[in-house]
# Entry
Amino acid sequence: MLSALLLAGIIIWSASQAMAFKPAVLFDMGGKFDKSFNEGIWNGLEKFRKETGIKYREFEVRQEAQREQFLRKLASKGSDPVIAVGFGQAAALTKVAQEFPNTRFSIIDMVVDLPNVQSIIFKEHEGSFLVGVLAAMKSETGKVGFVGGMDIPLIHKFACGYVQGVKHINSGITVYQKMTGTTPAAWNDPARGAQLAKTMYDSGADIVYAAAGGTGLGVLQAAADNNKLSIGVDSNQNHLQPGSVLTSMLKRVDVAAYEVFKTGHDGSWKAGFKILGLAEDGVGWALDEHNAKLVSSAMKNKVEQVRKDIIAGKIKVHDYMSNNKCPVQ
Amino acid sequence: MWNDILLILDGTLRISVPFLLAAMGGIFAERSGVIDFGLEGKMLGGAFVAAAVAHWTQSAWLGLLGSIGIGIIFSMMHGFASVTKQGNQVVSCVAINIFAMGLTVVLANAWFGMGGKTPQLPKEARFLSIELPFAEAMRDIPVIGEIYYELISGHNILVYIAFLAVPITAWVVFKSSFGLHLRATGENPLAVDTTGISVNKTRYQALLFNGILGGMSGAYLSTAHLGFFVKDMSAGKGYLALAAMIVGKWRPYSAMFACLLFSALFAIKDKPEISEMLKGLVPLNLIESFLEMSPYILTVVILAGFVGRAVAPKAIGQPFSKEK
# Structure
């Protein structure tokens, strides 16, 4: 009798679980309006919400310790699937995903190898290669720059792809590379970003690519203030300083995040790896009314050709994270 | 090479401004016996209000006024808690820093809906670089002309104000009669009280200056160096200013040199040619990490008394009450 009751209870419980689709997202330190990575995710989720009318829970991490706490809170409240945004969530997710084996988790930008986790990673090196090609063709001084956020392998992956793209066009071009810092504060320090970019411009660079979250906003500002060019990242940042942002390296986190909720909703969500590159339109470069004047048709043709060559495998772009080394500097 | 040095020095000046303003503010408060590491919060609050007001009024000057206003509000809160109510000054500072972190983001979200960012300011609503007279003409004169063109000319007005704040602070604290009261209040409040001067009033006056300078340091970030506010954009600069003040032993000129030293470390670290030069010789990130942490190491070393002694004002952190 008791066991039958219990069984019935479980069936009702699981049925209610299936009926109430309660997706959730845990944003990373930059916050959902960072005009970059997190905001891209948010855009994708908002699209899902508008299409389906299904609301989702969200949290923004403000300290390291909150990662695990919030993930556990979301999972224990019955949220499913849960998106963990950013490489920093990996350790916390590894722990929490084991505690809640029936909850589906997706992590963006990092690999967590567990049966109930989907790891979505991007071939940022391919997208960065393309903007590197554009920078090399546009540069008049023969010097370009790169400003990274926190000094982690993922950001070196951007830098390495970019340098390869630049050198693909002209191996004589100098690429200045700087990381903003070694703590998460490096994602939110636009004053340092502007200073780093200004120093590069003073040293003769005329285009600086920023892969630095909120810090990158300072790089874009410095480019506008010094009549130089910048390259945005993750979301399309061309409109932030119209006319001085050469292009943006697009990382379609919005599509990835949207897909998680959508496949989670229709049941086709799968654990495992999902690697999104040029071929999957997971990365790319931005062309709109704000930078149309900056990109000549020769540049456009060349970069499209390179894009096709990379997809076809004719050009191999080295992934920094495969061996933590970059073949070019 | 000469040009590189000039550029490094130029970068040093730009980086040092928020440190300088905040450190001078810190000197006023701490010389009067009130601990202030709420500078971080005042800088953040000042940055937000300056950007918001400049956006609404399209005037950088009104933005600056707003940042001074919020700086004073914060320092008066600190004064009320720690001078009037005789609360723990450290706790009050922490409260102000946390309050500023939360308040700026919440208000920015409510008013602009951009998640803690304020709208981009147009050039007209920012403090832009000023070309000093004859800078262009003197550019070709060796040394003097170059220094004038690269180093002295071409900054925004807040840079000049910040460097003007140093002699003014030095004069007020060490030469004026108010400064005498101020320092005496920080060393021996009881003695001050017996002469009929109000200790608490002096501390409030000191905090007024503190708020003005602390708020202005934020305005530099959001309306001069950049053209927007984003959350947490002070990124620890207020704490670094405090460290510079301690390294400078609570003296305006020494603190200025400490600010310049810290900034120079950043400027050297930023210079791409130097990284190119060192590349291959030594592990680059080791050098960079070392340069990054050296301000804090220096502060600890000086506080520990290895290199000269940094003696804080005697009555610092102690609320004054006549009954004692």
Observations:
- Residues 14-18 of chain A have pLDDT under 50 and may be disordered.
